[in-house]
Amino acid sequence: MKTVPVVALALALAACEPAQSPPAVPPAAPAPAPPPLAAARSTPLTLTRPPPLAKEVEAFPRISTPVSPYAARINLTLAAADSRIRAEIADCKTTDDGAPEPNASWERNLLTKMGGPAFLSLLDSNFAFCGGAYPNAMRSFVTFDLSTGAPIDWASYLPADLTALVRAFDDINGLPVRQYSAPALIAWYRQAALAKIDEEMRRDCAEAYAREDLSVVFWLDAKEGGLGVQTDAFPHAIQACAETVILTTAELRRRGAKPALTDAIDAAHEAGVWAAKPAPARSAAP
Fold first, then answer.
1. Separation between Cα atoms, residue 245 and residue 265, nearest integer Å
2. Which of 76, 102, 124, 206 is the most exposed place for a label (fewest CB within 10 A)?
């Protein structure tokens, strides 16, 4: 009997079997459609307000959501600012010899200028009478960057021709104040501010706006849809001349601001995340 080698037999049998197709490759999943502007951004913040520090003295809001180490860092900073104001109020209401200061008073109001996404911008207004001839009115802005948990570094988001820093100090809350005085920025601010006021006030304020030491501060303004700009360099007697003007997101983009900033402002403007009072907390935030 003639024998067939095993290898040859296996090859012959394989040739008789129908050819098998390679396993089908599943089709690639379709790329998701680009989300609309509001959905493409991070969600707005949820803020709560701790109980007042004293009668007519509001506490800074705290971030409830999103929960993150950066939000926790902001909350600790705001809690420290509240503690500082408590100490200032106690000092205001006490004379140098430790007796109660007659007629001393303190009011503090807080307003959310932009409550996310990406940034939290707050306006803090204090009105204090601590004895003496005149009361003190103090107004300051603070903007936090939720990607760091720290006050915003404006130079990281704005072009160099807007961010020539001239003064840096802490406000009454212990929060940083940064004043800028780039030539192009001041020229734009003078023109825009004077254009907002009537002819009589322009005459009265012309000397104030001609000051060589003019500087401005920034904040994010979701309602107006841009960067808030105002001088805080005027003495008390001419503070009424200090106009707020807005660098719109269109103008910011034209000047080279980072999309991370302008897109967040646009999203906040569309979502209407400004000015609303945060929900009251059941107990004081840390």
1. 16
2. 102
